[in-house]
Amino acid sequence: MKIMVAVKRVIDYAVKIRVKSDKTGVEMNNVKMSMNPFCEIALEEALRIKEAGFATEVIAVSMGPSQCIDTLRTGLAMGADRAIHVDTSTSSSSSSATTTLNPLSVAKLLKKLVDLEKPGLLILGKQAIDDDCNQTGQMVAGLLKWPQGTFASKVILDKEKQVATVEREVDGGLETLCLDLPAVITTDLRLNQPRYATLPNIMKAKSKVIKKVTLEELGVEIKPDLEIVQVTEPPKRKAGVIVSSVDELIDKLKNEAHVI
Amino acid sequence: MASLMILKSLKKQRSFSSLSPITSSISRFVSTLILGEHEGGQLKQSSLCAVAAAGAISADNSISLLLAGSGPSLQQAASHAASIHPSISQVLVADSDKLSHPLAEPWAELVRLVQQKGRYSHIIAASSSFGKNTLPRAAALLDVSPITDVIEISGPQLFVRPIYAGNALSTVRYTGVDPCLLTIRSTSFPVPHISSDSKSDAAPVSQVDLSTFSEDILDKSRYLKLTSQDTERPDLGSARIVVTGGRGLKSAENFKLMEKLAEKLGAAVGATRAAVDAGFVPNELQVGQTGKIVAPELYMAFGVSGAIQHLAGMRDSKVIVAVNKDADSPIFQVADYGLVADLFDVIPELLEKLPEKK
Q1: What's the gap in Å between the CA of A147 and the closest CA on chain B?
Q2: Does B346 belong to an annotated binding site?
Q3: Which domains does chain A have, with CATH numbers?
Q4: What residues in A contact B332, CB-CB < 8 Å?
Q5: Each residue's pLDDT tens digit, A33-58
Q6: pLDDT of B200
Q7: What sign results for the dihedral spanned by CA atoms B283, B285, B288, B291?
Q8: CATH (domain of B98)
Q9: Electron transfer flavoprotein alpha/beta-subunit N-terminal domain: which residues (chain B) (predicted)?
Q10: Closest residue to B297, CB basis, from A136, A165, A259
Q11: pLDDT at residue number A140
Q12: Cα–Cα distance measured from residue B329 to residue B332, given in angstroms and rounded to the nearest whole number
C-alpha cells in the first residue's frame, strides 16, 4: 500500500505576521517559511505506518510556487520516498504571477493525483495555520467518495481487514470510528511528535526524486469562487492595568468591570 | 430581542403581501438551511447561534433547520426546535439508522439531497467539530467553496473571517453559484435569551424523503464509541466565566485549584496546549487556534504565557485577567487586569476573598 501525504508551505508558526498597509494581504517577503505543523504530523504518521510494515511507499505532495520544493525536500529528509510538486507558478493562464489555490482546487488536484498514484491512504493536516480553513481533507474525501477520519489523535491500521480505527478529537471528548480503506485522515496536534531530519538524511534527500507536474497536465481547471476583498488587522485591545494585590483585582472586577 | 421582533413582523408582512418591498430590493431570494445539532432531545446552543447568523444575512430570510438522527430523541429535538426561535420557519427531520451518529459521510449526502429539493441560497453550520467535519465535505459534493469560521456577515455574499490564528481579519466575497456554505463562530453570533413559550405557533416539522438516499458510501465508516469527560460545570464554549491554567500550574494535582476556583465562580475550566500535553487535563479543555474558541465575559488566565496560538482562542473575551510570575509574559499585553505574582499565592487568596456566587 502506498500512502500519500499532502504538505503545505506556510509562514512559520512562531512568526508574528504583519498585515500589508494596502490591505491586500499579509507580508510574505523576507518572512521565514516552514512546513505547516499539522502537515509535519501527517508525514510523521505516514512514516510510522510504513516503518510498522503496513505501507511500502510514502509520497509527499505539495502545490504552489517553485519554493514548495524546499518544503518537499524537508519531507524527503524526514523520510518520504518521493515527492510530487504541482507547480502553479508556470500556469499559462497567469493573470497574476501567483495563482492562489483555494481548498476546493487543492482537493480537486489531490483527487487527480490519487487517481494516478492509487494510494491506500491519504493523510493531511487538519488545517493550515495561515488560512485556518480546515476544509481540504474533508473535500477530497467527498470528491473521492472515501470515508474520512478528521482531527485524528490515534490511528490503528488492520492490514488483514483493510480498515483503519481512528480516534478523533471532538467537542465532547474522543470519538472512535472504523474506516474501510482507502480512506482520508486529517491529523490533530496530539497524533504524534514529528521527527527531526538528521544531516545524513538531509543529504540523502537531495538525490530523491521530486516530480513536477503542471495544472494543465492534471487537467484541473482552477476557478476561484472566493474573492479576498481586504485583509485588516484585528481591533486592538485597549491597554490594561497591572494591579498590585488580590484585593485590588477583586475590587476592579466587581466595581469597574462588573463581571463578578 | 428588538431585531427578532422586526424579523417576525417582516415575515408576517411577506406572507400577506405578494410583493414585499424588501424582496424586490434584494437581487435574489435568500433562503437558508441550517445543519442543526441536537443532544438529549434539545437543539444545541451553537445551532441557535447559526440561526442568529442566518438572520444577519438578510432580514427577509426563510430559515429551515435540518435535524438528523434516529428514534424518539430526534422527534423530541424537532419539536423543541420548532418552537424555540421565532425566525425558524421550517424544521426538516431525517430519521434513519444511517444517521444515528453524526458521521460526515451520510450527513454530506443528506445535505446534497436536501439542497436538490430546497435550492437554498445559503447553508450554515456552527464551527463545532461536527460542522467542520461535515460542511466542507458537503461543499465538495456541491462543487462550491465553503467559508470557515465566519465572525461577521456584512451582506448576503460578504463575510469576515479570521486568518493566521486571528492575527488578521479577511473580508471575502463569495462569487460562486448557490448555495453559499458557511460555518460560523458561535461566540460572534450570540443568541438573546428566548423562553420556549415566546412563540405560540410552532414551525411546521416535515420528514425528509430518504428514498433516494444514496447508500454506496455510507457503510465505509462506522461509529464505535465516544469517550467523554463528564462534568457538571458549564460548557467551555458558552460559559460566562472561564478560568484557564497553563504550564505554570506544574501538575495535574495543582490543576484542582483551578477547579475549585471555577466552582466558586460558576466558571468553566480551560487549559493551554502546554497543560494538555503535560497531561494535567484532557484535551477537550484546550483553548486556542487548534482547540476551542471562547469569548466569555470574564477570562482569567493563570500561569499562561500567552502564545499566539493560545491568544487566538480567547482574545475576544470581554475582560481578560492574567496572573503570572513573569512580568514580561505576552499575556499581559492583552490583559485588562494583570497581577504579577505567584499563582499558588493568588488562587488561595482569591478562593478566600471572592464573594459567594448567588
Answers
A1: 6
A2: no
A3: 2-231 (3.40.50.620)
A4: 240, 242
A5: 999 999 999 999 999 999 999 999 99
A6: 59
A7: positive
A8: 3.40.50.620
A9: 32-217
A10: A259
A11: 98
A12: 6
